[in-house]
Amino acid sequence: GQSLEQPSEVTAVEGAIVQINCTYQTSGFYGLSWYQQHDGGAPTFLSYNALDGLEETGRFSSFLSRSDSYGYLLLQELQMKDSASYFCAVMDAGNMLTFGGGTRLMVKP
Amino acid sequence: DGGITQSPKYLFRKEGQNVTLSCEQNLNHDAMYWYRQDPGQGLRLIYYSQIVNDFQKGDIAEGYSVSREKKESFPLTVTSAQKNPTAFYLCASRTSTATEAFFGQGTRLTVV
User: What burial class does residue A76 get, using C-beta atoms within 10 Å of its C-beta: 0-12 exposed, 13-18 middle, 19+ buried?
Assistant: First the structure.
């Protein structure tokens, strides 16, 4: 089976940087993805890492260490609209896509 | 416009009744997924399908059934065997070669 662990809640102030960690246990690991979900809405894709290292997309960056079964999402220059839940997800070679429990980010003025 | 459509947005059913949630996509995606989300919780995988006429159980398949007779459609039936069906249900799809999954807007099922 697959399991993912991430903090349940993180709070930060506008303009700050926040890191959301994700550790996973899986068989047949293919890649780690990150999704954002606003209350009542659908998750939307943010980033994907298949290889070790950092991927940067604007204010968001994602990191993966396959040897440590660990990744993180880094959000810079936080804005109020970044208040949402963030999910890490693992993909295996059989196309199974499993999500973590989510991290609720609250951005304060 | 291409996308993934779930209907209805809200659904109310009496306890003991089966109910089917619709998921249709016109993105020509091979893989489709059903997830259940409870308040303040993550997405739990119910079923997924990689190709037509094939599907696999996820982590919480008990009390649910699916079919994949067409590439575009992946309906989910919540049966009376599901003990606590009230939840937010999300359908997603992706191509087999891509990493991004696209989600529908969800169906909020309430069983009374």
Answer: middle
Instruction: Place B1 in a pLDDT band, splitting at 50, 70 and 90.
Output: low
- The reply to whether A91 touches chain B by the CB within 8 Å rule is yes
| Tokens, residue A31 | 């890649």
Which residue from A101, A32, A108 is spatially nearest to A68, judged by alpha carbons? A32
Beta-strand pair A60-65/A70-75: antiparallel
pLDDT in tens, B74-105: 999 999 888 899 999 999 999 888 889 999 99
Which residues of chain B make contact with A96, given a CB cutoff of 8 A? 45, 48, 56, 58
Site of tokens 């880094």? A74
Q: Which helix (H) or strand (E) holds A9?
A: strand A9-13
- Please check whether residue B99 is in contact with residue B83, taking contact to mean a CB–CB distance below 8 angstroms: no
What residues in A contact B106, CB-CB < 8 Å?
A: 42
User: What is the per-residue DSSP string for chain B?
Assistant: ---EEEE-SEEEE-TT--EEEEEEE-S--SEEEEEEE-TT--EEEEEEESSTT--EE-TT-TTEEE--SBTTB--EEE-TT-S---EEEEEEEE-TT-S--EE---EEEEE-
CB A39 within 8 A of CB A26: no
